[in-house]
Write a structure and sequence with these properties.
Layout lengths: L2 H13 L4 E6 L3 E3 L1 H8 L3 H4 L11 H10 L2 E5 L5 E5 L1 H11 L6 E7 L5 H18 L6 H12 L11 H6 L6 H8 L10
Parallel strand pairs: 2-4, 3-5
Antiparallel strand pairs: 1-5, 3-4
Helix pairs in contact: 4-5
Length: about 190
């Protein structure tokens, strides 16, 4: 196994000890500051916009979604919860429960806030999952723009060589392998 993926596995095993599924008052949930900064650095929700219009969903359907894809939070000492992962579920819940002081939603509560590196990996997996793993109809331009923004830096200009990419997708080492997996043309993806 890849060294980055092995490190991720061990870190997750430690982080997930004593995790609880709890119903939490929705008005006590806020974006973790790192997640908020991450979302502000890229127009995330427009990239991951579902093909269907969720305004036709009932509140019951959205609540059911939140049980099938619960949000991941850590609890602060002040009794509030910081959203770590589950942005798309959280976005839908905001439409239903904004301003409702009586609303409770299911959350997976971590016993402690993840380290900064683990937090970034959790955020990346949260946004990469619908884009690459859950059969969203993607284009080469979307893949190029999104992955370049999320996985490259001045120090590491290659998506495939970034430690975060190697942690999440250790067997995808080239653009060709990525395109084969997504069933899209290598000509439409411009990645190093």
């Amino acid at each position: 196994m890849n060294i980055h993926a092995e490190h991720l596995k061990k870190s997750l095993e430690r982080l997930l000890v004593d995790v609880k599924l709890e119903t939490v008052a929705f008005n006590h949930i806020q974006l973790d500051r790192e997640l908020k900064h991450f979302c502000e650095s890229f127009n995330l929700l427009s990239t991951l916009k579902p093909s269907s219009d969720d305004c036709y969903e009932s509140p019951a359907s959205i609540l059911l979604d939140s049980y099938q894809a619960p949000i991941l939070v850590s609890k602060t000492e002040a009794g509030y919860y910081r959203l770590i992962s589950g942005l798309l579920t959280y976005q839908k819940l905001c439409k239903v429960y904004a301003g409702d002081d009586q609303a409770f939603v299911p959350c997976i509560v971590l016993p402690r806030r993840p380290s900064k590196d683990m937090l970034r990996l959790l955020m990346l997996n949260d946004i990469v999952r619908p884009l690459l793993k859950q059969f969203v109809n993607v284009t080469g331009d979307t893949i190029t723009q999104s992955l370049s923004t999320w996985f490259t830096s001045d120090e590491e200009p290659s998506v495939f060589n970034s430690p975060q990419w190697q942690s999440l997708f250790p067997t995808i080492k080239t653009k060709t392998q990525l395109c084969e997996w997504l069933h899209i043309s290598t000509k439409t993806v411009k990645l190093k």
